[in-house]
Amino acid sequence: MIKRCLFPAAGYGTRFLPATKAMPKEMLPVMAKPLIQYGVEEAVEAGMNIMAIITGRGKRAIEDHFDVSFELEHQIYGTPKEYLLQEIRALINQCTFTYTRQIEMKGLGDAIYKGRVLIGDEPFAVLLADDLCTNEDGDGILSQMVRVFNKYRCSIVAVQEVPMDQVHKYGVVAGKEIDEGLYMIDNMVEKPKADEAPSNLAIIGRYILTPDIFELIEQTEPGKGGEIQITDALMAQAKKGMVIAYKFKGKRFDCGSIDGFVEATNYFYEQSKKQNTKKTEKKSQ
Ligand code: UTP
């Protein structure tokens, strides 16, 4: 059973300045819910209940969000607005939240490595909250990945086909298709130019990692951009054993970019309008 989910959330979120000057990017709301809460809900749906969050300077709002605000509870108790706190209260009751800081932003690989003290020696999930994923037709992306993990017992990365002119923004993988939408990775390049990309299968912010990844990160030299890249450590893991890329079912919004964030907001707004219409129709029946 995978119980722990790691949330690297130490980045500066420079694409959202000035909003992210004093507020973490992960707390930006789509509708009335912060990005990181969507992520925690996805992890809970996949059976996880220990959330390990890698924070940095200026990220205290995340800790406060997953804590009880007694003053607010007192104010809102018994009022018609109390239901607005139901979802977050349920998460706080179901989960344990643990935190550690990444002191210097040395890359995603380093942020994951900092999580070692919170994870221990067991397989775990990694969720980048600025990739907002949803699947209106069934299970969430992490749940789908847990199923793949239970079958293959190796590290799994979620991938999506992207246009070739976008591959330079992602870690890109290639490999042999071993089952529908499942690839045994034999090549992986971080942010390649279009003519150097091994495919158009881009890694998005969902991973299941086996704990030997920590030692491999330790041995990983700084790569693209002078950062410790998780893709380099995963490539070493793929060479030693097996890493699988999983083409997930559902939608993903890149909420680390303004375009993706606006798309997500429009999508979730339309979804909530549909739900409200359904509710009104039911009531009037
Ligand atoms: P991004 O590449 O989106 O960087 O990181 P960023 O700093 O968050 O945003 P921009 O590009 O400046 O706008 C991808 C994910 O990895 C985490 C980030 O918090 C984000 O969730 N990350 C990245 C870390 O936790 N530490 C790092 O050193 C780098």
Give the strand line-up of the largest sheet: 8-11-9-10-12
Using the coordinates above, name the CATH class.
Answer: Alpha Beta
* Biggest sheet architecture: 5 strands, mixed, barrel
What is the H-and-E element order?
EEEHEHHHEHHEEHEEEEHHEEH
Which spans have pLDDT < 50 for at least 5 consecutive residues? none
Structure annotation, total helices: 10
CATH fold-level label = Spore Coat Polysaccharide Biosynthesis Protein SpsA, Chain A
Which term fits the overall shape?
globular
CATH superfamily: Spore Coat Polysaccharide Biosynthesis Protein SpsA, Chain A
Quantity of strands, as a count: 13
Strand content: 25-35%
Radius of gyration: 19 Å
Number of domains: 1
Structural class: alpha/beta
Helix content: 25-40%
Average pLDDT confidence is 95
Q: Please report the distance between the alpha carbons of the first and last residues.
A: 43 Å
Heterogens: uridine 5'-triphosphate
The CATH architecture term is: Alpha-Beta Complex
